[in-house]
Each structure stands twice: as structure tokens, then as C-alpha cells.
Amino acid sequence: MLIYSFSSPEAVGKFAANLIQAQVNLKPSCVLGLATGSTPLHCYGELIRKYQKKEVDFSQVTTLNLDEYLGLSPKHDQSYRYFMEKNLFSQVGLTDKQTHVPTGESQDSEKEARDYEKLCLSHPTDLQLLGIGANGHIGFNEPSSSFALSTHIVELTEKTRQDNSRFFASLEEVPKKAITMGIGTIMRAKKILLLATGSSKAQAIQKTVQGPITPETPASILQLHQDVVLVTDLEAASLLNEQDLPLGTEWRKEA
Ligand code: PGA
After folding, report:
1. Cα of 163 to ligand 1 centre, how many Å?
2. Ligand 1 pocket: which of 12, 36, 39 to mutate (most atoms <8 Å of CB)?
3. Does 255 score more than 80 pLDDT?
4. Ligand 1: distance of its center to the CA of 164 in Å?
5. Residue 162 CA to ligand 1 centre (angstroms)
6. Residues with catalytic annotation?
7. N- to C-terminal Cα distance for the chain?
8. Least confident of 62-71, 99-108, 142-151, 205-214
9. Is any ligand 1 atom within 6 A of the Cβ of residue 131?
């Protein structure tokens, strides 16, 4: 794992956008795995600026999003399809044909999960962007007693529902279930770009990087991936300890 830490969330977003731009320029027909949440917003803003300046062209890119709430239509302003349209797709020329987000409204959500996994298998991801939950979740893979491998339906924890309730009128409105890529789906990506900002993520980052690999901290599995870049601000990196980094982990800090 390669860790970069920067002084601000804006700098994290800029650096992440540079890596995504490099991926797209290197392989214009690449597959990008994308994430929602507040963390990637600086990165998406930077990608939009690059697109406007014609520094990056998404016309041949395919995207696969990690997850979606069950029960929300794509038009609901808290659905992840809506989030992606608003914060990235519509602003960089990414069309419906190129972009994939699991369907939260399917009559048969188990079938939707199986179909989405097949879609992921047929579009091997070149670069997967990830945020992390305060409880160590990636996508909606919540702390659990075992790693769920493929795309599946998940019951959201109270912690996650509470964390996300800031976007809804009330906690009651936050869906109780979601569809998410599994840990195995995520681990197949050739490269993983994990972003974390803010002190609320410090403990999750410490456990992800230095803790035991356990489904209780889903992101800790990333220690076993051969190409992970973790980009943090100082607050999210505040509990990392240089002396205790696992062998092969390198930490580069903004001067
Ligand atoms: P956040 O969510 O970026 O809004 O903190 C990240 C996540 O829960 O994966």
C-alpha cells in the first residue's frame, strides 16, 4: 500500500483527480469503479474542471458504481444514480450507456445483485475509487462476521443510517437496505484508490492500514491487494503510526 497524506481535503481531491486523469489518458477505454459520499466530491469537482479545460476525455470510459439504496428511484435526490448524474456524469459528458449504478427499485433485488455482479465480471475494473465509512465499511460492506464476496443485498447498520441521515429529512427516511458490490468484486479491480478525509475517519484508517485483516473492519482486506493508493488529509491520517506500518507500506507526506 502506498499512502499519500495532504494538508487539506481539497489537496486530496486534486491528487485523486490527477490519478484518475492519468488512468483515462493512459487507457481511454478504461473501466472506472466510482463511489458516492462527500469524500469524492473534491475529486469529482477537479475532474469536471479538467474536462472543461479539455485535459481529460471520458467518451470511451465505462463506469460502474459501488452501490445503491434499495427502494429509491433514480430520480430521488438521495439515490446514488441521482448523485452521480449531478456531481459528475452530466458535467463530463458521461452518458446513460456508459454509466452503471445498481438499480435500487428492482422488483427482484437478489436477481439485480446477480446481474450486477455479471456486469462487473464482464467489465474488469481498471481503477476503483473508494471512500470509507467511520466503521470501516467500503461500498456498503458493513462490519460483519465474514467477508461477503459478490454483489449482494445488505441491511444497513444503525451507525451508517445515522451517518447518512444528514442528507435526508429524518432518520426514518434513510433506507434500511442497499445493494452493494462485494469485497470480492472490489478486490478484482487492478488498482484501488481509497480516499479518507476528516477526523471521523482516523480510527477506520488506522485499523485499515495497521489493524488485523478482519471482516469487522471491511477495508482491512485492502492490505491484501497488490495495488492500493490511500490518499488522506492530516486528520484522517492522525492515528497512523510510522513505526507500525506493515512491511511494504510506504507513507509519503506533503512537504
Ligand atoms: P462519506 O462516506 O464520504 O460521506 O464520508 C463514505 C462512505 O461511507 O463510504
Report:
1. 8
2. 39
3. no
4. 8
5. 12
6. 67, 135, 137, 142
7. 20
8. 142-151
9. yes
Dig out the grid coordinates for 251 from the structure: 507513507
Cα 130–chain centre separation:
2
Note the pLDDT tens digit of each residue in 53-89: 999 999 999 999 999 999 999 999 999 999 999 999 9
Tell which atom from ligand 1 comes closest to the C-alpha of 164.
Answer: 4
Q: What does the alpha-carbon distance between residue 39 and residue 25 come to, in Å, rounded to a whole number?
A: 23
* pLDDT band per the 50, 70, 90 thresholds, residue 226: very high
- With 90 as the cut, is the pLDDT of residue 160 above it? no
CA torsion through residues 106, 108, 111, 117, sign: positive
Query: CA 28, CA 59: separation in Å to the nearest integer?
Result: 8
User: Taking all residues of the chain, what is their mean pLDDT, rounded to a whole number?
Assistant: 96
* Statement: residue 238 has pLDDT above 80: yes
**Nine-digit cell string for 171:** 432518520
At residue 242, the 3 state secondary structure works out as: helix
Query: In terms of residues, how long is the chain?
Result: 255
Burial class (CB in 10 A: 0-12, 13-18, 19+), 52: exposed
- Supply 5's cell numbers: 497524506
